[in-house]
Amino acid sequence: MIVNATPTGWEVIYHRAHALLAAQLAGQWRRKDAPARLYETLAAISHHDDLEKEWEEDSLTEAGAPKDFTLSTNQDVEIGIKKLADLAKNARYRGRWVALLISMHISRLNEPSRGKFPKLDKLLDEQLQNQQHWREELGIEKEEVDAAYAFMQWCDRLSLILCQQELPADERFLEISKGPDGERYDIMQRSDNLVVVKPWPFENDKFTVNVEATSLSQVKFENNAELAQTLQQAPIKILEWTFVKS
């Protein structure tokens, strides 16, 4: 989960909610420049974090605070290998294109850990084999798949910028990443809170996206069960961002 500190406690955004925000952003992309198999790509974006089940896992720091996903340890990686394998397997039931993009996402996030865990190495090798196999079955060139995944990665990164409150102050620009066209895109929040992306990649000149966040007034928890129960009962707020072309 994504955890942001607030003056009264914590703001928690589930990873599945972040993925849904990424899909909202993807759906706003300029149609004439949309990636291959747009709707299947949207499905991959909206489900790429389905392995996260914060309500079932150890989601506390040693101090008893909700643990942000960036605070993972080697032990978390070891435990997560089976989850990654299940994510790759379950994605196949949505179709090979969705499975292909999610497999590429698994590869990108976990290749830096290659060599640390034999089981992870085996999983990564399987992903590379599957990716080649699915590309051949679907009859699609690697360049086109790479562009679709760059689109997915771009939307994922933009969603994280919003969810992690990374928009700079004082109308300064922040790089999102390179898009499916290989071009760099930057984001800025104006003094009136409207959000600008340059160059403008979206279909409409103005639109609004949102994500649900849970507000916790309790700072410390005794165990994960207490956190999970509190999350279920805590108030939910809607965070919104309005994008404008300028």
Mean pLDDT across every amino acid position: 91
* Total domain modules: 1
Q: What overall geometry do the principal axes of the alpha carbons give?
A: globular
Strand content: 15-25%
Set out the fold topology.
Layout (H helix, E strand, L loop, with lengths): L1 E5 L2 E5 L1 H13 L10 H10 L26 H18 L4 H15 L7 H21 L3 H22 L10 E5 L5 E6 L5 E4 L7 E11 L7 H10 L2 E9 L2
Antiparallel strand pairs: 1-2, 2-6, 3-4, 4-5, 6-7
Report on the structure:
The chain is of the alpha+beta class. It has one domain (2-244). The chain has helices at residues 15-27, 38-47, 74-91, 96-110, 118-138, 142-163, 224-233, and strands at residues 2-6, 9-13, 174-178, 184-189, 195-198, 206-216, 236-244. The longest helix has 22 residues, at 142-163. It starts with a strand and ends with a strand.
Summarize the structure.
The chain has 246 residues and is an alpha+beta fold.
List key phrases describing it.
4-stranded antiparallel beta sheet, alpha+beta, 7 helices, single chain, 7 strands, 246 residues, 3-stranded antiparallel beta sheet
